[in-house]
C-alpha cells in the first residue's frame, strides 16, 4: 500500500468512526421538551423527547457508520465503493434528521409520549435544544464527505494486511541435493558393518554369492 493510499484509508476509517460516535452521542440526548396543552381546567404537561425518539434514524445511522469503519479495512475494490455509498446514505439521513428538528419538525413528535396523548390534549409544541440536532447535522456532513472519499478513491486502496500475505508461487522451490557417488572407502565401511551384524559381506543381498565389495 502506498503512503498516500494508507493515509486516505486511515482518514476514511477515522471519519466513519467520528461520524458514528457523534450520531450515537446525539441520539442519546434530550432534543426537545414537548409541552401538551390540555382542556381547562387541566394544566399543561411536559416531557423530554430524546434524539432516539425524535429521530430514530440517528442512532441507527451511527451504528451503520461504525460498522462501515470496520468494513473499510476488510473489503476492497467494488465492495469498498459500496461501503462508501452506504456511508453517504447514512450521512444524508443524519443531516436530514437534524435539520428537520431545527426546522420545527418535532412539534408533533411527542404525541406518543406518556402523559402527552389523550382526548384532553388540544395541542403540543416542542422547545428544541439546538445543540444535539446540530451535532447530528455535523455527523451527517462528516459521513457524507467520508463516503464520497471512499467512492472516489477507495478502489485504489489495497486491503489491510495484504502486504503480509505469501503465496505458494512466491515460496522458493526446494532443490534435492545430487547423490554422492559411492567410493571404495564407503564399500569397506559397509563390509565392516555387515561383519558386526554377523553377515557375510561377500554375499549379494539377492542371495547370489561372490559379489565383489
TrEMBL record:
The chain crosses the membrane at residues 56-75, 82-103, 132-152. Pfam families: Trp_oprn_chp (PF09534). Residues 168-213 are annotated as: Disordered. Residues 169-180 have a biased composition (Low complexity). Residues 181-200 have a biased composition (Basic and acidic residues). Keywords: Membrane, Transmembrane, Transmembrane helix. This is Trp region conserved hypothetical membrane protein. It comes from Blastococcus aurantiacus.
Amino acid at each position: 500500500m502506498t503512503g498516500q493510499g494508507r493515509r486516505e484509508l486511515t482518514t476514511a476509517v477515522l471519519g466513519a468512526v467520528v461520524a458514528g460516535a457523534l450520531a450515537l452521542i446525539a441520539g442519546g440526548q434530550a432534543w426537545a421538551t414537548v409541552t401538551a396543552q390540555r382542556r381547562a381546567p387541566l394544566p399543561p404537561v411536559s416531557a423530554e423527547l430524546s434524539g432516539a425518539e425524535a429521530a430514530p434514524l440517528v442512532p441507527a445511522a451511527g451504528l451503520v457508520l461504525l460498522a462501515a469503519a470496520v468494513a473499510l479495512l476488510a473489503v476492497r475494490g467494488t465492495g469498498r465503493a459500496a461501503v462508501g455509498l452506504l456511508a453517504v446514505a447514512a450521512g444524508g439521513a443524519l443531516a436530514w434528521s437534524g435539520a428537520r428538528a431545527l426546522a420545527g419538525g418535532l412539534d408533533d413528535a411527542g404525541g406518543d409520549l406518556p402523559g402527552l396523548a389523550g382526548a384532553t390534549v388540544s395541542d403540543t409544541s416542542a422547545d428544541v435544544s439546538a445543540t444535539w440536532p446540530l451535532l447530528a447535522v455535523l455527523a451527517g456532513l462528516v459521513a457524507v464527505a467520508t463516503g464520497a472519499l471512499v467512492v472516489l478513491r477507495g478502489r485504489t486502496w489495497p486491503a489491510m494486511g495484504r502486504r503480509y500475505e505469501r503465496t505458494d508461487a512466491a515460496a522458493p522451490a526446494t532443490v534435492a541435493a545430487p547423490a554422492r557417488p559411492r567410493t571404495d572407502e564407503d564399500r569397506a565401511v559397509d563390509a565392516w558393518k555387515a561383519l558386526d551384524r554377523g553377515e557375510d559381506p561377500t554375499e549379494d543381498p539377492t542371495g547370489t554369492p561372490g559379489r565383489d565389495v
